Amino acid sequence: MSKWPIRWDLLFRYRMIEIIALWEGRLTTNNLIQSFGIGRQQASKDINSYLAEIAPGNLIYDKNLKGYKPSDSFTPKLTRGHADEYLHILSRTEDMMVTFDQLDMGFENTTMICPVTRNISPEILRPLVQAIREKKRVDISYTPLKNGEIVERIISPHTLVCTPLRWHVRAYCEHSKDYRDFVLSRIHNIPEVNNSTAYGKSADTLWNTEVNIELMPDARFNEKQKAVIEKDYGMSDGILSIATNASLIRYILDTYNIDIHIQKSNPQGQQIIVKNMEKLMMYL
After folding, report:
1. 165, 99 in Cβ contact below 8 A?
2. What is the DSSP string of 132-167?
């Protein structure tokens, strides 16, 4: 395996240069100083190195802006040029400033609404990560929502899944004799790592079944309204196709605020529907 040509710390700073220049239209050394805690001389060197070695001609200095702006020929070299990359930086900044409330990272003109942090302790998470890494079984105390009673389960976890609203672990459950999702915030006490498991990811049929979720504007909208929604969601030919596996379908639908039980409600509320719901229902 060949060595990556750029150090990771430099790569992150170069990516910051591209993202800030592209999405804010003005890059200064302060952006790097505040985000990475480096000196002005190092920040200036990073910008010059980026222009000399990575993307000559991508940025031009504007005296009126007192900073760099994207050139007309700007082409992302270390990013995809997607808005999500800028939003990721904002999310990271928000997280850092929650922990370090005096930290100034230079994004005072933006804010984000983040989900409530789930109550998950490292003592619970660490044994699960260990079990996944070492392919072992785990004894857990768990409270299913069905009856609210604590039950004991032996599981064989293979993947941690993070959705916008919660963390869960995908695992084989010896009680159910099938693969299930266990919400981490419902696990009590410290999970006990046991002996080797006989049930891994390769035997999880739903996890290994590839599907496409096809989203489209609600048919009750007129053509102009549909065009607005198609642009909002970046649809192609009126369809947003999302590749995933069968066990994650309902979490993706939740992310898009799609309730399969109220498809006939007011279209203004949900806006989009699942075009291929009949094909997906067998997995739900």
Report:
1. no
2. HHHTEEEEEEE--TTT---EEEEEEEEEEEE-SS-E
Angle at 34 between CA 31 and CA 38, to 5 degrees: 100
Q: How far apart are CA 36 and CA 107, in angstroms?
A: 13
Dihedral class, residue 148 (left if φ above 0, else alpha if ψ from -120 to 50, else beta): left
Amino acid identity of 268?
Q
| DSSP string for 233-265 | TT-BTTBEEEEEEGGGHHHHHHHTT--GGGTTS
pTM assigned to the model = 0.73
Chain CA centroid to CA 145, Å: 26
Instruction: From residue 154, give the alpha-carbon distance in Å to each of 35, 139, 173.
Output: 44, 5, 6
Tens digit of each residue's pLDDT (9 = 90 or more) over 105-114: 455 666 666 6
Tally the C-alpha atoms within 13 A of residue 134's C-alpha that lie toward its C-beta: 13
Residue 136: strand pairing partners: 196
- To which residue do tokens 């266990």 refer? 182
CA distance 78 to 82: 12
Please state the separation of Cα 55 from the chain's center in Å.
Answer: 28
Say whether 46 sits in a helix, a strand or coil.
helix
Question: Could you give the CA distance from residue 135 to residue 178 in angstroms, rounded to a whole number?
Answer: 17
Q: Give how far Cα 202 sits from Cα of 132, 259, 272, Å.
A: 13, 30, 34
Model pLDDT for residues 234-266, shown as the tens digit of each residue: 999 999 999 999 999 999 999 888 877 665 555
